[in-house]
Design a protein that fits this description.
- The two termini are about 40 Å apart.
- The chain has three domains: about 240 residues, Rossmann fold, CATH 3.40.50.12780; about 150 residues, Rossmann fold; about 100 residues, GMP Synthetase, Chain A, domain 3, CATH 3.30.300.30.
- About 50% of the residues are buried.
- It contains 16 helices and 26 strands.
- It is globular, with a radius of gyration of 23 Å.
- The strands form five sheets. A nine-stranded mixed sheet has the order 2-1-11-10-12-13-14-15-16.
- The protein has about 575 residues and is an alpha/beta fold.
- Strand 14 and strand 15 form a beta hairpin.
Amino acid sequence: MNATIQPAASMDSAGPPLDRPWFKSYPSQVPQIIDDASIGTLNDIFAKAIADHPNRAAAESFGKRITYAELGRSGDAVASWLQQQGLRKGDRVAIMLPNVMAYPVLLYGILMAGGTVVNVNPLYTPRELTYQLEDSGARFLFVLENFGATVEEALPDLRLDRLVVVKPGDLLGAKGAIVNLVSRYVKKAVKPFSLPKSVPFKTVLSEGARRKPDIVSVTRDDTAFLQYTGGTTGISKGAVLLHRNVAANVLQCEAWMRPYFGEREDHVMVTALPLYHIFGLTVCSLLMTKIGGCQLLIANPRDIAGFVKTLQKSKITLMSGVNTLYNALAHAPGIRDVDFSQLVFAVSGGMATQEAVARKWKEISGQPIVEGYGLSETSPVVCANRLDIEEFTGTIGYPLPSTDVTVRASDDTVLPPGERGELCVKGPQVMAGYWQKPDETARAMTQDGYFRTGDVATILPDGQVKIVDRMKDMILVSGFNVYPNEVEEVLVKHPGVMEAAVIGLPDEQAGEVVVAYVVRKDPNLDPDELRHFCRENLTGYKVPRRIEFRETLPKTNVGKVLRRVLKDEVASSR
């Protein structure tokens, strides 16, 4: 692949000397750099967890747990089966699953076989699925039966060697049969489909278990994932994440968090973020494997009532989520019956966390939301708040060990602390490039090797980084910059507002005007009252010219509000 990026493995190789004020704010136990020699492969992390913690719980799904030893055996069976089907080192294997038990088993098996994982959103349309599988060149696809109809529709346009159908209850023993019956007949989550040449996942496990997988020499410079960007600002691109990129980020996260979560043997991470998303993949799945923790897999986090019931039955110690998820949980009946006494921390990323949500969450759980920041292209974590904060900070915290950040003007000039510009990142977690898109890769990089995030940020005097907004989401009203996050933050502070999304729409006089889409908490709330509230908190040009009430807002499966979809709806109606 052309135009690859060579990420910095240590601060010494990260580029020109910089003033890094964040080091002064680091917890004393956190190193400034990650030793390059300690960065191995994800396979090394898996193998060590299985050897060190064979009897610890590795994952829990629908009330059933599997140990690391069981994860290893099932993963080996997957690896063996793939090799028997002709998988060669570097071949792409797609996983189209929500958070069910098969996911971590497939992840382990594919990587141990020498394959490259292509994570696919199960909610994709046939068109989106076809694009991603064709772009990645995936030879194999594992899909949950709930989404078999999508694959059937796309199949004539796909070039797959083998297709495997997974059931939600696979690997759950006798309980799995009940889970499958409920999914198919009670919840009616499985649409009829016909995939006559597909293989049941149980067959993969049984056939693969007949022989040990061949040992494959996987290095840290081999590709672990083609992680496709969300496509919220344009066409989806496959970020090439090498083993060393993701393994480095696991070590960076561990170094940042280890002083707080300690060495206990019973850590349980609430894994509601989908594992096909890079945040859930690294912070929930891979980090838990590194520390020997358990992933509490939530297959459908949109079923808030069911989610809360699961939390009520569980002893959770760690949690990750996004703003919309924390907001939904905080307003859910029964959430106060959840035992949060063992919760060490709750981290948030993927989108801006709103102060009102953070305040509500702490009041319920006793723990502040610790916000971080990252992207698919950075494996993903770039920055995180200290985990010992007492209150929500409103920033994304400090760059992780071995991570450099700069804020730059449009001409790439590095701006001093306090000034707004594009956040640029360098570190061992930065991708090797975009899959088969050398021009896009080149455009994403500065001349001195920093990745352009596309986010407007500022660095505070103590080294904390504050995201202002996405550059492409910025609204220009009569020459004045309006950042949607700021307006949304004000809107959700109104007691009658549940959620809000703000976009800019063309206007003949002002260039653009601010438009707000609001989900009401109070059904009697009217636009004039809300606009008056905005005028009390925002300068005139930032106040929404138009306010539209909706039952829901369009979101990614991770819960990130899709402002682009709102813009597209307006454009198509004209």
